[in-house]
Amino acid sequence: MSVKRNYICINVIFIVASLLLLQTVQAQADWSSLDQELKMKQKAMGNSLVVMVWKRGDTLVYKKELGEFNSKTPAPIGNASTWLTAALVMQFVDEGKLSLDDKITRWLPEFEKYGKNYITLRLCLSHMTGISDESKFLKKLFEKKKFSSLEDEVNSFAAREIRTNPGTDFWYGDIGADIVGRVLEVVAKKKFDVLIKQKLFNPMTMRKSSFTTLDASALDPSGGASSTADDYMKFLVMLLNNGTYAGKQILSEASVKELLQIRTNSSIIKFAPKAAAGLNYALGSWAIEEADGKATALSSLGLFGTWPVIDLCHGYASLIITKDLQAEQKPDIWKSVKQTIDTQFPSTCQ
Fold first, then answer.
1. DSSP state letter for 123
2. 34, 155, 237, 289: least CB-packed within 10 angstroms?
3. pTM (2 decimals)?
4. How far apart are the first and last CA of the chain?
5. Three-state DSSP class for 317?
6. Are 164 and 89 in contact (CB under 8 A)?
């Protein structure tokens, strides 16, 4: 009887071990399809780029460096900067120093002087200030160079015409993020680039990330950051992990939920960049996939060839950063790359 029981136990152990081994083999991702796709599309994406994928609750599972570029090299990240600025605002909300529904005139009286009394921080981060804005990127870039400080630039916004009542439509641009950046300067009595370094970059060891300008022009919270693939991935992992990074609570879970909540619908979007056509907006990022009115995947699309993603259903963060300015956004390529990455992670959403 004892021999029979031992035989049965040995067989059960063998079967369990075999199943565990099979699960391990099946769980090993096959990235050959992504390798091939990136090779085919490398030229279209600017030749020199970095692609990274991080699995939730795990570690970096994929990294590819192509051309004359690597994950430690800083590059301008364009409007992917806005996601960083929005996160910094939420840190102040967590500390009780700000509310998203605070009116900006509390800190920026210049706007009250021009009758812009109903613009809130939430509306700024949602691109719904109603202030007249320019849609041409190069012209806006040239305009920014005229100002020597963020204060001067934001004061110029106060004097602009109101295109529509605040909160009534969405117009993608740099005005809202720059306004909240200036509000943070007033609240903290520090320059924006120093502030975000101390409160966001340093705690996450994002040592090569910066908003500091080299030409003495105004700081640009909406699109003026430079970062590395290694650094920006840390930020994405923090969002993916509900506000924690390396055991540190960078943002509360409530603040992360605020950042990821959809703020728009198709009827109110009056202007959006080509890469975001048909998408809704959260706070600092676009809902590139959604279900039942909730964002399931988000990205802060960068005009310089930066494409960060967090996918809540598939449980991963991915990032593409290119070395040089991309003259044209290529949303079809980005979508195709994401679909290839998705195949490596089962979805937890119904």
1. H
2. 155
3. 0.90
4. 49
5. strand
6. no
Beta-bridge partners for 298: 287, 310
| Contact yes or no for 200/207 (Cβ under 8 A) | no
Q: Are 194 and 187 in contact (CB under 8 A)?
A: no
Reported confidence tier of residue 122, pLDDT bands at 50, 70, 90 = very high
Which is nearest to 250 in space by CA: 258, 259, 241? 241
How many whole angstroms separate alpha carbon 62 and alpha carbon 56? 13
Q: How many whole angstroms separate alpha carbon 11 and alpha carbon 248?
A: 45
Q: What CATH number does the domain located at 31-342 have?
A: 3.40.710.10
What secondary structure does DSSP assign to 49-99, as a single string?
EEEEEEETTS-EEEEEEESS--TTS-EE-GGGHHHHHHHHHHHHHHTTS--
Tell the burial category of 240 from Cβ atoms under 10 Å away from its Cβ (0-12, 13-18, 19+): buried
Residues 6+ apart with CB under 8 A from 45: 38, 305, 320, 322, 326, 330, 333
Mean pLDDT computed over 124-136 = 88
* Helix 32-41 / helix 331-342 crossing angle, nearest 10 deg: 170
Q: How far is CA 261 from the centre of its chain?
A: 13
Distance CA 254, CA 267 (A): 28
DSSP H or E run through 271 = strand 269-271
The residue behind tokens 């067989």 is: 11
